[in-house]
Design brief:
Blueprint: H1 2-10, H2 24-39, H3 49-59, H4 66-74, H5 80-99
Helix pairs in contact: 1-2, 2-3, 2-5, 3-4, 4-5
Length: 100
């Protein structure tokens, strides 16, 4: 876990929900999820190591790690629109949890 924390501490933040999420490493991890969300309709993003690192990092920093598991589970859906919709809702919940 220490190695993952260092990876996200050193990443550059592209900027999303900066007013809600104060920690740069958390913002970087959320950015990875946003990237996966934007690609999940056309690509199979489940195998991206960066995605799994971000999920692992976030699971220990939010109150309800269930949202992270829900995000991954949403990516397993067969229908692209359903996959995107469910992943978007899970990401919304992750961001809300981080903002508290």
């Amino acid at each position: 876990m220490q190695q993952t924390e260092k990876i996200y501490r050193d990443m550059a933040f592209a900027g999303y929900k900066g007013d809600i999420i104060a920690d740069n490493a958390l913002r970087d991890a959320v950015d990875v999820l946003i990237s996966a969300l934007s690609s999940c309709v056309e690509d199979d993003v489940r195998q991206r190591q960066e995605l799994h690192d971000a999920i692992s990092y976030l699971q220990y920093r939010i109150r309800k790690p269930y949202y992270c598991r829900l995000f991954l589970k949403a990516l397993d859906r067969r229908h692209p629109v359903e996959r995107y919709s469910m992943a978007r809702m899970a990401l919304r919940d992750i961001i809300r949890d981080l903002g508290r």
